[in-house]
Each structure stands twice: as structure tokens, then as C-alpha cells.
């Protein structure tokens, strides 16, 4: 009968406990300070919690056996044996309180103290009953280790410092795993008297109390005698340290992206980060005299895609120069730094091979007339020369052939968010910097060249740790996305890399003696319009490094350029991080079966397959089944009279048996009108076909001269009170000697194709016509308005 009543009583108690637990659950969510660590666990940055406390999260692995034994011996010897409260200790405490008539002992276990720290209440018997219930809830829902962990996270150390890890870092400058026995004992006694045992102020009193407990540990034989003796003799040098503030830009970013994580383990390598910060700051100090105040650097490990160094500005504390601006995420103009991906797309489209000839001559692209950085033109050049020397006209011509939406789509695929927003507004100028990008996007793009055309997301966090538990145990949820995006074929990426690796290094010949030890890299620069942004991005098999230099204010500096301003810092970083590397390859080696790259003979004058008129062919890479197979046409066959003074077309060519007038087949240069105009303007001689037979009655086609200096359909504004002239210009075929200009169908003048013609406009609609001496003409219409 008694046993039955006991069972019923237990059942009623359990049912009541379950109901109360459901309707009054215990909340263990705590607002922790955010701690940013490096990949190896080194502390980089610490932030206050939302309630302005230094409450750092102690992980289970940081609770060492020595720490565990010291805390339990001092606070709760039977912690692992009681259900949340110690009935024997409670009876003993109650007896003492009754005998003395005052409260001398509370008999609180670690579990009950944890409840009190979670839910502070007045010290009454009613509060004690609530604490007992909450203690049972903790024991039911969490393991003993998790409860001890939560206790260590909440114990007070005075001021706004809570938790053993916070005290360890702020008073001893180290993590709990590195604490000595003397330091552990010190941190174990302070929470009982946080107002009187003030570390850094009352260290002598703290030492007395510490040594008293160390002797108690010796009496209990908790630790060996030698360890106790060393701890007793250890001086106490604790004082309040500043919270660590390293890698501030990335730390703030990670905290904003992971607001609920108490410990965020970044992918940064502390040695690489420290080296990069030192080089960036020293370099910024040197270029400050040029009125250039900021730099940003991002370093990526190409094998893991982990960001190993992240410098958002030269000096985070420099508020005057915008030091807190994150240059890695700031939207800037890329200048010419996007050209490698354009050439890669052209390789993949079969439009060019490395030795294909492109025209670097003044060209009008429907009103857009790009110029080179040095204001000079080079005439016909190879594609690899144009990319290596960052020539603008060939790049714009390639983009026009590939079409802007193709490049935009590729950049969107590669994760360029600003380009995605600007997609409808972008034109040919985007390849020269007419779009918005970030250093992070550009560096990630260049990792694709290092990885055979495939881009992976950058990793700012280390992979997840395996853990268990409820709300108390929180772990770092690093992104594990491995989605790969292929923007170029491995063959195109290889050709781009080979071209970019041949650019003359700025550290040679000064470092010639050490050239064997210097890392081999491929790199590209960029300078934005107005000289506001200088870029230099390089990569090899190990690292990709992106460098931006400029002013966050957007002020242009005449001396600013990618080659002269950003590149020296890039090579300083590579030489410091990858000097004397055993692996000097730029890309992983590819098996022959997986590569479509092959070599073929081409004409050096055009880059096409040699024809009968081509001399001295050379070898060039091409992508099998992709690169176009076109016969060279850099020279054309023309029938002339024996003296070579007249040329014939098929309509007027004499018969082969015409005696002394028998036509002769000769080869002449076959250049485009814009190249012919360039040669004539620079007085560069070339083989020009003789004029056509004047007696020929053939009617030529309608492909007339191309008008370049005015744009069809445009509106022009003039000041009627001020005399002004407008220029007319055209590009005509190489065999054209004279062009005729017409204004509203009235002959205005005749001139050579390369001569600039000027006229005084009047308000109104105007039709402009240009005809050549072959009878071909081109028309355009413009509208002239008074201001």
C-alpha cells in the first residue's frame, strides 16, 4: 500500500513537472560577445554583446581538465552526481542557518548558480524554490558538461566582464587553454568577490586569496605538489588589456553576416594577414606624398578558395581618409582589368588566337572613339601583344564582335552584382572601365584563370565543426557552398595566363640575381577614367592577390596608374608570401587527352592559315574544333599592266594574248580603310595597288566611305552668336584617291580621304554625303540646334 502511494506520488510529481516545464520553459539563450578568430584559432577581433558586456563564449574544448577540477573542487564537488541540487548540503546549510540565526551558507550547486545568473532574483526562500525547479529543468534538457559550460560563460568578474573566457582574454591576454594553474585559480576565486578582488588594482589581495586556495588544493591532493609549488611562486601580472582589434574590416563583415554566432572562425592565416597589413601600411606611407591615401588587398588560396588575408584600407583608425571604408567591397571602376576575360571569351568563340592580328588604329565605333593610355597607336598588332600592353581599340573592337551582352552575361555568371544591376545601361565602354566592380569580385574572377576557367565561391570561414547539444552549444556555421561556375574553357584560361605571364615585371632587372627564387605570376593592371582607381591583380598556382590603390573620396590623382602605383605593392606581396616556392607553375598541369590546344603554322602578318603569298610562317596555339580556319588575305592578287601603273578588274582586264598589254598578276597589301588611313597619317609606306583603269565602264558597289567624325541621327547645339566650325572625316578603301563632300546634296568640296574638312553649320536639318572616286557614297543626317 505504501509502495503504491509512493509510486502515485512520483507519477503526480513527474506529471506536474512536465506540465510546468512545457508552460514555463527555461530560456538559455544568452547575448554573447562576438569573437572572430583566425583559421588556427588565434583571436583576431572581439565585439561587445548587444547589452554592452564582454561575455565571450567558452567552447567545450577550452574547458581543460585542470580548469574543470579547480572549478568543481571550489564550487561543487558533487556536480556530476546530484540532480541539480545537493540535498545533503541543503540540510547542512539549513541547520547552520537555524543555529546561528542568520544565513551563513546557501548550499547552491553550479546548476543553481547558473539558474541565478540566467534569471537574477532576490535571495528569498521563494526564489530558492524557483531555482530548484529551474535547476531540475537544466539537468533534464542539458548534459553536465553543457551546464558547466554555460556557468563558465556567465560568472561575473566585475565591471562589464562576464565569463571565464572574457576574463582570461582581457586580463591575461590569452585563451583559457593556455592558462596556468595559478591563473586558473585566480579566475576561479574572483567571481565570489568581484568588487574587492579587482584584477589589476588589488593584485596583492588577489594573490593572498589565490595562495590560500592553492594550499587547500594541496591539502586535498587535487594537483601534484610540484605544480602547486610553481603556482604559489608565480607572480600575478594581470591587468586590463584592450580587446583584440585585428582584421577589422573582415571582422565587422563576418559579424554582420553571422549575428547569432558567438565564435566565428575565419579563414585568415594570421602570419599572412600580418605580413600583408605591414606591407600595405608601409606602402601607403610611401605614396602619401603623392596625395594617394588608401589601399585594399585581398589574398586567396587557389587550392581551397579560402581568403587568407583581407585588408580593407591602409589604416582602419584613419577617419580623415575614410579608413573604415571597406575597399574590398567598395564599388569602383575596373579600368582595363576586365580585358583578360574578354580575350578569353574571344579565344573560346574562335575569333582569335594569340597571334591573330588586330588593328590598333584610330577607330570610330558609332560615335565612340577610344584612345590608348599613352595616346599612341601601334597599327596592326597580335592579340597577345594587345592584351599584354592593354591596348584599348583592339579590346573595344573585340567586344563589338563578341557583343556586350555576352560579356555582361559572363560577369553576371561570375557574381558581379553591380554589373547585373547595370546590365541594360552598359555599352562598349565597359571594357575600359565603364561599369562598377569590387575588389572581391575581381579577385574571385582571376582565381578562375588560375583554376582553368572555373570559379568557386570565396570562403571566408572554415568548414563547420561537428557538435551536438541544444541552444547552449552554438558553433560556427561556415558556408560550405561548392558550386562551381565555368566562365572559360581550360584552353582559353591557359592562353590568357601565358599572355599575362609574359608582361615585364617591375622588380626586374633590380632583382635579376634573385630571379630564380622569385614567384612566377600572371598579372594585369587597370586604371580607371580620371585616374581614380589603380588596380593590379596577379595569380599563380598558389595564390591570387588583388590590389586596389586610390582615394575613397574618388579624387583623381595625375600620378595614379595600375602599372606604376598598384603593381609594386602586388609584387611586394607575392615576393614576401611565395618567395623561393618549390612549385613555380602558374596552373595545374593538364593531361594531353583533356586539352584541345594544339600548334599550327600561321602567317605572321595576319595570324591566319598561310596562303600562296605568305612568307616565313610561324607557329601559334589554336583550340581544335573552335578556332576559325581562315586563309590569310593580308595580300590580294591584282592584275596590272606590265608597268604596274594601272590595275584591272575582271570587266576591263585585257586577254592573256594581248601582246605587250598582257596583264601581270601582282600581290599588294590588303589593309582595311582605317589601317590605310593610319599608315597615310603616319607616313608609313606599304604596297598600294595602282589606280583602276580609267577607261573601265564598270559600276562599283554601294560600299562607300565610312563617315567617322559625325554621328548619324545625332543632335548638335551651336551658339549663333559665336562662330564655330564642325569637322568632317571619313575612312575609305585603300584604292580611293579622292572623296567628295556634299551638304544637303550640294557639293561642298573634294579632298583626299585622310584630310580633315571643316564647315560652318547653321541651325536646321542637315544631310551629309561622302562619295569616293569609284562612285560609291554614304549618307547621314543630323540636326543642328541653337543653344
From TrEMBL:
Q: Which Pfam families match?
A: BiPBP_C, Transgly, Transpeptidase
Species in which this protein is naturally found: Spirosoma soli
Q: Which residues form the PLD phosphodiesterase domain?
A: 289-320
Catalytically driven reaction(s)? [GlcNAc-(1->4)-Mur2Ac(oyl-L-Ala-gamma-D-Glu-L-Lys-D-Ala-D-Ala)](n)-di-trans,octa-cis-undecaprenyl diphosphate + beta-D-GlcNAc-(1->4)-Mur2Ac(oyl-L-Ala-gamma-D-Glu-L-Lys-D-Ala-D-Ala)-di-trans,octa-cis-undecaprenyl diphosphate = [GlcNAc-(1->4)-Mur2Ac(oyl-L-Ala-gamma-D-Glu-L-Lys-D-Ala-D-Ala)](n+1)-di-trans,octa-cis-undecaprenyl diphosphate + di-trans,octa-cis-undecaprenyl diphosphate + H(+)
**Family designation:** In the C-terminal section; belongs to the transpeptidase family. In the N-terminal section; belongs to the glycosyltransferase 51 family.
- What's the name of the protein? peptidoglycan glycosyltransferase
Give the source's domain of life in one word. Answer: Bacteria
| Cross-referenced InterPro entries | Beta-lactam/transpept-like, Glyco_trans_51, Glycosyltr_51/Transpeptidase, Lysozyme-like_dom_sf, PBP_1c, PBP_C, PBP_transglycosylase, PCN-bd_Tpept
Q: Which NCBIfam families match?
A: PBP_1c (TIGR02073)
List UniProt keywords, sorted A-Z: Carboxypeptidase, Glycosyltransferase, Hydrolase, Multifunctional enzyme, Protease, Transferase
* E.C. no: 2.4.99.28
Q: In which pathway does it act?
A: Cell wall biogenesis; peptidoglycan biosynthesis
Q: Does the keyword Hydrolase apply?
A: yes
What gene makes this protein?
pbpC
Amino acid at each position: 500500500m505504501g509502495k503504491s502511494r509512493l509510486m502515485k506520488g512520483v507519477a503526480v510529481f513527474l506529471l506536474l513537472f512536465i506540465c510546468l516545464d512545457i508552460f514555463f520553459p527555461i530560456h538559455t539563450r544568452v547575448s554573447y560577445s562576438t569573437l572572430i578568430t583566425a583559421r588556427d584559432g588565434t583571436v583576431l577581433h572581439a565585439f561587445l554583446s548587444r547589452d554592452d558586456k564582454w561575455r565571450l563564449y567558452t567552447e567545450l574544448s577550452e574547458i581543460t581538465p585542470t580548469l574543470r577540477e579547480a572549478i568543481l573542487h571550489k564550487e561543487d564537488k558533487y556536480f556530476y552526481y546530484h540532480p541539480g541540487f545537493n540535498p545533503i548540503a541543503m540540510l547542512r546549510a539549513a541547520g547552520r542557518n537555524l543555529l546561528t540565526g542568520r544565513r551563513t551558507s546557501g548550499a547552491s550547486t553550479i546548476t543553481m548558480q547558473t539558474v541565478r545568473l540566467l534569471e537574477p532574483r532576490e535571495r528569498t526562500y521563494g526564489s530558492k524554490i524557483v531555482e530548484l525547479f529551474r535547476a531540475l529543468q537544466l539537468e533534464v534538457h542539458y548534459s553536465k558538461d553543457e551546464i558547466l559550460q554555460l556557468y563558465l560563460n556567465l560568472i561575473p568578474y566585475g565591471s562589464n566582464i562576464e565569463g571565464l573566457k572574457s576574463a582570461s582574454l582581457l586580463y591575461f591576454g590569452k585563451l583559457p587553454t593556455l592558462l596556468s594553474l595559478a591563473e586558473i585559480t585566480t579566475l576561479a576565486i574572483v567571481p565570489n568577490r568581484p568588487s574587492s578582488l579587482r584584477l589589476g588594482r588589488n593584485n596583492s589581495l588577489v594573490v593572498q586569496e589565490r595562495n590560500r586556495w592553492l594550499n587547500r588544493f594541496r591539502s586535498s591532493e587535487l594537483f601534484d605538489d610540484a605544480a602547486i609549488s610553481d603556482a604559489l611562486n608565480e607572480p600575478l601580472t594581470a591587468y586590463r588589456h584592450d580587446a583584440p582589434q585585428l582584421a577589422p574590416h573582415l571582422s565587422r563583415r563576418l559579424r554582420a553576416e553571422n549575428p547569432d554566432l558567438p565564435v566565428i572562425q575565419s579563414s585568415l592565416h594570421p602570419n599572412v594577414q600580418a605580413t600583408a597589413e605591414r606591407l600595405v601600411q608601409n606602402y601607403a606611407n610611401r605614396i602619401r606624398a603623392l596625395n594617394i591615401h588608401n589601399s585594399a588587398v585581398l589574398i586567396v588560396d587557389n587550392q581551397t578558395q579560402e581568403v587568407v588575408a583581407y585588408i580593407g584600407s591602409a589604416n582602419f583608425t584613419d577617419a580623415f581618409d575614410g579608413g573604415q571604408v571597406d575597399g574590398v567591397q567598395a564599388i569602383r571602376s575596373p579600368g582595363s582589368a576586365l580585358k583578360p576575360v574578354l580575350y578569353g571569351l574571344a579565344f573560346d568563340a574562335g575569333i582569335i588566337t594569340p597571334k591573330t592580328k588586330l588593328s590598333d588604329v584610330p577607330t570610330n565605333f558609332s560615335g565612340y572613339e577610344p584612345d590608348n593610355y599613352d595616346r599612341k597607336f601601334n597599327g596592326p598588332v597580335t592579340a597577345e601583344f594587345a592584351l599584354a600592353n592593354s591596348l584599348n581599340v583592339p579590346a573595344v573592337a573585340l567586344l563589338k564582335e563578341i557583343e556586350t551582352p555576352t560579356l555582361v552575361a559572363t560577369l553576371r555568371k561570375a557574381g558581379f552584382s553591380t554589373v547585373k544591376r547595370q546590365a541594360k545601361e552598359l555599352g562598349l565602354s565597359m571594357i575600359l572601365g565603364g561599369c562598377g566592380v569590387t575588389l572581391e569580385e575581381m579577385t574571385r574572377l582571376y582565381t578562375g584563370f588560375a583554376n582553368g576557367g572555373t570559379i568557386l565561391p570565396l570562403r571566408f570561414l572554415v568548414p563547420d565543426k561537428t557538435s551536438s547539444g541544444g541552444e547552449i552549444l552554438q558553433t560556427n556555421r561556415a558556408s560550405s557552398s561548392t558550386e562551381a561556375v565555368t566562365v572559360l574553357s581550360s584552353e582559353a584560361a591557359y592562353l590568357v595566363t601565358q599572355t599575362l605571364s609574359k608582361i615585364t615585371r617591375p622588380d626586374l632587372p633590380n632583382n635579376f640575381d634573385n630571379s630564380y627564387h622569385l614567384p612566377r605570376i600572371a598579372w594585369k593592371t587597370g586604371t580607371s577614367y580620371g585616374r581614380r582607381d589603380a588596380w593590379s591583380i596577379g595569380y599563380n598556382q598558389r595564390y591570387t592577390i588583388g590590389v586596389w590603390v586610390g582615394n575613397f573620396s574618388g579624387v583623381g590623382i595625375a600620378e595614379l596608374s595600375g602599372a606604376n602605383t598598384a603593381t609594386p605593392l602586388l609584387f611586394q606581396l607575392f615576393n614576401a608570401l611565395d618567395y623561393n616556392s618549390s612549385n613555380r607553375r602558374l596552373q595545374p598541369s593538364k593531361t594531353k587527352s583533356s586539352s584541345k590546344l594544339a600548334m599550327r603554322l600561321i602567317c605572321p602578318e595576319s595570324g591566319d592559315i598561310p596562303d600562296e603569298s605568305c612568307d616565313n610562317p610561324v607557329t601559334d596555339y589554336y583550340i581544335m574544333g573552335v578556332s576559325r580556319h581562315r586563309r590569310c588575305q593580308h595580300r590580294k592578287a591584282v592584275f596590272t599592266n606590265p608597268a604596274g601603273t594601272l590595275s584591272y578588274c575582271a570587266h576591263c582586264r585585257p586577254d592573256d594574248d594581248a601582246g605587250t598589254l598582257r596583264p601581270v598578276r601582282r600581290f599588294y597589301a590588303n589593309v582595311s580603310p582605317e589601317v590605310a588611313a593610319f599608315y597615310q597619317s603616319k607616313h608609313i609606306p606599304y604596297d598600294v595597288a595602282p589606280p583602276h583603269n580609267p577607261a573601265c565602264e564598270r559600276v562599283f558597289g554601294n560600299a562607300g566611305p565610312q563617315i567617322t567624325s559625325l554621328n548619324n541621327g545625332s543632335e548638335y547645339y551651336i551658339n549663333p552668336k559665336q562662330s564655330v566650325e564642325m569637322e568632317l572625316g571619313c575612312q575609305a578603301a585603300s584604292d580611293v584617291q579622292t572623296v567628295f563632300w556634299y551638304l544637303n546634296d550640294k557639293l561642298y568640296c573634294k579632298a583626299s580621304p585622310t584630310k580633315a574638312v571643316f564647315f560652318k553649320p547653321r541651325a536646321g536639318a542637315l544631310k551629309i554625303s561622302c562619295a569616293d572616286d569609284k562612285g560609291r557614297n554614304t549618307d547621314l543626317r543630323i540636326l543642328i540646334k541653337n543653344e
